[in-house]
Amino acid sequence: MAVIVVAAGSGTRLGLGKPKAFAEIGGVTILHRALRTVRQWDATAQVIVVAPHSHLDVARAIAQDGTTIVPGGATRQDSVAAGLVALEPSVRLVLVHDAARALTTVAQFERVVRAVRQTGAGVIPSLPVRDTLKRVAAGTVIETLDREPLVHVQTPQGFPRTELVEAYEKASTEFTDDAALFAASGHVVTTVPGEELAFKITTPADLARAEQELRGSEMNLRTGIGIDVHAYDAAEPLWLGGLYWPDEVGLSGHSDGDAVCHAICDALLSAAGLGDIGSRFGTDDPRFEGAHGEVFIAETLAMVEGAGYIVGNVAVQIVAKHPRLGDRRGELEAHLSRLVNAPVSVAATTSDGLGFTGRAEGVAAVATALLEMRPV
Ligand code: CTP
Ligand code: MG
After folding, report:
1. How far apart are CA 114 and CA 98, in angstroms?
2. Which residue numbers in the chain have pLDDT < 50?
């Protein structure tokens, strides 16, 4: 199987002064998005990118290794023809896809390929026409068309290789899509349902729509994990989760040994991809000598928010023989939630007498954090 992704157009109507496939939606180029979907759908298919002469290197940098890059032609039809020349000999089924339909889903590729396999025909995804259609001449309506049998056509369009290549060799006029050229050669073309997301990005309004669609659909969430351990030190007061625990054995450490706050910091930094508490604060930085956990959390939160995230929630589990959370759980959760500016839940467990926590040598805390990329 092969997919020819045509990306050699100049994007005149988009008007960005660069070929359309290299315009970005949500910071990712149209070509990259189209190729990502193709690879998600079938990692083993031959992928041929038809790119503008001026952008062959850029296209190569965007595409994965193993992708065939060929220069395009003056028209879309010329570009597809250039792609067909690069087909590997073993390929039997060819899909032709507009890079400009960057939000097309994997499901659409699957629908098309399944139908080509079942029918041996050319297959195109289509959507019904919703607006009323009229034939006009010089601004005057001649007739209202029956829209019932009419459809909008999208890509990918799928074909048996031999027939498509032959049809292209025979073609002597310009067709508006591959299926029209294929049909002109006497072959059958059938339809499968298309999808709204496969709309073609043509104008600035289309690009804005694509940005809007992504905002709703793309995962803007990141999770992180953090763990921290401190040994008991009977000479120290206990600070845990930012609270003082009277009459409890304290924890040792360069700071106040607050394993709960430190695990939360690590989870937040991990979710934001900002490293960890050790690399961010320096374990022997004199500014943090004896510092309370809240200081670390406040600084971590500033870093995470500065990187464009807001905290969704945080969950912490304490593994320790003591202190017992008991009736302070609510107080602890409320305090940490205020510090993190998001819900924090706290649980506790013992380790059934096993390991350093079971031997009551220290406290471990594990935290997870969920961050959401702040809407742009
Ligand atoms: N295409 C191509 N080679 C061409 C013309 C178009 O590979 N000579 C590709 C485009 O890159 C696009 C698809 O065919 O992915 C559909 O074309 P269109 O939406 O018309 O894109 P452009 O030609 O780039 O846009 P415009 O017509 O506004 O210049
Ligand atoms: Mg065009």
Report:
1. 19
2. 376
